[in-house]
Design brief:
Layout (H helix, E strand, L loop, with lengths): L9 H20 L6 H12 L3 E2 H8 L3 H13 L3 E6 L2 E9 L1 H21 L5 H18 L11
Antiparallel strand pairs: 1-3, 2-3
């Protein structure tokens, strides 16, 4: 069956692009010994010190179980710390260590380069347009991902 590109559902195209980018980013993260979930957890802790694990999972659309596994690995490597909240010992907040912050910055630079390479097929104007449209769609599908009130 030969489908016209206009007949392909946008969701399928977005999924394919997401899979391709995820594979490329995972490859980019290998030298840092980070998985995609670990990079997401470390980035969330760097951007929002004291973020709750469940919030980090919601923002990045990663299952709580996968986020928990990622956090465990980062804590074991000394890249993240868990701290309890005074008055609420069950709630643990995540903080990137100094080593974790340095690794996050290095990994982010590499990931941004991977993303830029993937977008080379688009003009700067098209890149801006697609960025705006994708953020709008993301906000509609996962409001936690675009939460500008970075309260944990």
């Amino acid at each position: 069956m030969n489908l016209n590109h206009l007949d392909r559902p946008a969701g399928n195209i977005a999924w394919e692009i997401g899979q391709i980018l995820a594979t490329r980013v995972e490859r980019t993260l290998r030298p840092f010994h980070l998985t995609l979930a670990q990079h997401s957890a470390l980035t969330q802790a760097a951007l929002t010190p004291g973020v709750i694990c469940a919030t980090a999972a919601r923002r990045t659309a990663i299952t709580p179980q996968s986020m928990g596994t990622a956090v465990n690995g980062l804590v074991a490597r000394g890249l993240l710390e868990r701290r309890t909240t005074p008055g609420d010992r069950r709630t643990q907040r995540l903080y990137a260590t100094e080593v974790g912050l340095r690794l996050a910055a290095q990994a982010d630079t590499a990931v941004h380069a991977t993303h830029a390479e993937a977008l080379d097929a688009l003009t700067p104007a098209e890149q801006g347009q697609i960025h705006t449209v994708l953020l709008k769609l993301l906000a509609a599908l996962n409001p936690a991902a675009t939460d500008v009130d970075r309260t944990r």
